[in-house]
Amino acid sequence: MKRVQFSVHRTVGEARLLAGALECAGVSVDVRGESLVPLSGEIPSGETWVELWLFPQDLEHARGLVAELRENQEAAERSVECPRCHEENPGNFELCWSCGLELPSGLRPRLRAV
User: Fold this and answer.
1) Percent of the chain at pLDDT above 70?
2) Which bin fits 46, alpha (ψ -120 to 50), beta or left (φ > 0)?
3) What is the pTM of this model?
4) At what angle do helices 12-24 and 59-76 cross, to 10 degrees?
5) What residues have CB less than 8 Å from 54, skipping those under 6 apart?
6) CB atoms within 10 A of CB 112
7) Residue 20 CA: distances (Å) to CA of 16, 17, 68, 75, 112
């Protein structure tokens, strides 16, 4: 069965991280173009990007997983203050890293200054 292109990445690291997450969820991933990365600068940069290819029946499941990863990343970029010790925690934490209190899911995360 033929595979379809799912995503294109500028670095091997980005591609391998996503491929690993998809493979852990049971999605068969074919990583293409890794061997061209060292030629960046010698050939056009667009030719050295790394591609992930999937079977067509896995596309919807993979898109759902990527959406879930993005939500978790957005939550991690926010911060939540612990009600007990008032320590700042990343928004995707379930427990306070300082005192171990379970953080209520209803706490409104606030944007963290970067």
Assistant:
1) 90
2) alpha
3) 0.66
4) 110
5) 3, 4, 6, 22, 27, 28, 29, 30, 62
6) 13
7) 6, 5, 15, 21, 29
